[in-house]
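tool_call: predict_structure(chain=1)
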Amino acid sequence: MELLFTIHLIVYVAVSLKLCKDFESLDLDAFAHMHPAAFQQFKEVGIIIPKSMDELALIRYKNKKATFASRELRIVVYPTQDCNLKCWYCYENHIPNTRLTKEISGRIERFVSKEINKNSFDKLHVTFFGGEPLTDFNTIAYPLCKALKDKVEGVGKEFACFFVTNGSLIGEDTIGKLKEIQPNLQITIDGKKGQHDKVRIWKDKDKPTFEHIMWAIHKLTAEIDKRYFITLRINYDNKTLLGADEILEQIKDIDPKKIFIHFERVWQTMNDVDQEQIKLLLDTMTKFIKAGFAVNQGAFRGLPFSCPSEMNNTVVINYDGTIHKCNGRTLTAQTQYGNLLEDGTLEMDESLVAKRIGKSTFEQPECLKCKMLPMCMGPCSQKLLEHGGKWVKGICTMNSIDTTLSDYLSLDFLVQSLINKYEQNR
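tool_result:
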């Protein structure tokens, strides 16, 4: 799953206890008369909603607009389906020696050129995924990314790129080129050094990676002046968070405004959560916040769709030129939606696209009555497809958090307060 830090839709308002009690106990007319300024502010931030507003209709409208009328073109590119590491929990079936060729790169460039000529987008967002996308970086991902950046910015449009990488292939030369293209990156660790180096090891001779990844993160944050451009994903199981203090010690000298911390439970251990683990996660996240780092957990993004794969103008392009819609599963002939033709034309099976995005994922009885709508826009379309389009408890996005909703919101409030403080001191 592609993860990228975004500003939430949840609005937090700090009020006095008296104002809170009056708001809960008085009718709105009395509250407006007693607290006119607060009443007006509550209306502006959406705490008080006019009776004439149909909130569900507005959610549906924004979702349809984002799904079918977005001016952002999103491409996920697989430079390879191979990887230099052998993490035990990876869902990808690595295919050795697979590489994006110059010929397929040319097709991608011609596709973007066609979209520019049609004026179909204002912003191009390219994600490099895999496999390990920094494999043969100098000859594959970098020249393609640089060509697309120059092409898009040359006509006055916006360009952004994102690398989901294990970080083990980042070197001095890589960093120099990354400084040119100014990407966002997601880099993953699996706990403190001892635990990480049992999981994220090279296929060749079990070479450890922790120290190199930490060197790369420090080097990147020192040389690239961009806010929250690295998401440090900490994959955890029931042992990982016991070593969280050592992780914090490793990153304490990094500018916290350049790095965002995302905690993600290893999916094979989802059923191992107990009260002790919940408390440990809360304590760990609180420590990171107190150290000045913005953190989160779970899959709530505050976007008008559940996942970018539900956007009509999102495509996943494999190294062989085949087209897919979801990068949360291994790309195979069974996940293929079409092909990128030699002239850059996108040939898609519209019946497959329609099956995925014809109905919004939140249009489920369970979602429509959930208090997290529209912060959560329903389960991912891939999981729905795998269950015949039917909602089941196991695919609910609420399962992505290891805390109560109340604790999740309390921590999120602290994080948003921290970010606001950083923004005010720019």
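agent: The two ends are 31 Å apart (CA to CA). Proceeding to next step.
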